[in-house]
Amino acid sequence: MYSRILVVGCGGAGKSTLSRRMGELFGIPVVHLDKLWWKEGWTAETEEEFDRILSRELRKPAWIMDGNYKRTFAERLRYADFCIVLDVEASVCIGNVHKRARECAGKSRPDMAPGCVEYVSEDFERWIYSYKI
Predict the structure, then answer these.
(1) pLDDT for the residue numbered 122
(2) What does the pLDDT read at residue 110?
(3) Which residues contact 108 (CB under 8 A, 6 or more apart)?
(4) How far is Cα 2 from Cα 95, in angstroms, rounded to an integer?
(5) Which of 16, 60, 66, 120 is deepest in the core (most CB within 10 A)?
(6) What angle do CA 124, 87, 55 make, to 5 degrees?
(7) Is 44:122 a contact under the CB 8 Å cutoff?
(8) Domain range annotation of the chain
(9) How far is CA 77 from CA 93, 105, 113, in A?
(10) In this structure, are residues 15 and 67 in contact, taking their beta carbons and an 8 Å threshold?
(11) 123: part of which helix (H) or strand (E)?
(12) What is the pLDDT of residue 1?
């Protein structure tokens, strides 16, 4: 069985949902990169601190890690036993992020840092439409 699994794909593709379900099924802890990167109020962590936290997580014996963060992908892939790529059409991802925003209205979603109230910006929509695996 794989003990270090990466899950990557566009925003709204279902990375966190799949990761949580696999974590429950396999009994493996889930690491959401968004929860490591974002601090309360959508304030980004510094790259140096993010890299330090990520390095600590990568050295653990088992994890399911979801998120993109292309800058760190090669490093994460070196530690991973397996990588799942969710290749989902942008229109489906847009629909999913809007559904998620409605379901999490006024609060943070479970795979996000506390104090990061869910919303969909035009920049995020543009990023989804331009996303390339």
Answers:
(1) 96
(2) 87
(3) 114, 115, 116, 117, 118
(4) 31
(5) 66
(6) 70
(7) no
(8) 4-130
(9) 24, 34, 24
(10) yes
(11) helix 122-130
(12) 78
How far from chain centre, in Å, is Cα 71?
Answer: 14
Runs of H (alpha helix) within 4-89: 15-26, 33-37, 47-58, 73-79
Q: Which residues pair with 9 in a beta bridge?
A: 86
Q: How far is CA 99 from CA 18, 91, 105, in A?
A: 16, 12, 10
State the amino acid at position 85 in one-letter form: V
Residue with tokens 């330090």: 52
CATH number of this structure's domain 4-130? 3.40.50.300
Structure token pair of residue 88? 């989902």
Q: How many residues does the chain have?
A: 133
- CA R_g for the chain: 14
Q: Please give the average pLDDT of every successive group of 10 residues along the chain, which has 133 residues.
A: 95 97 97 95 95 98 96 97 97 96 91 91 95 87
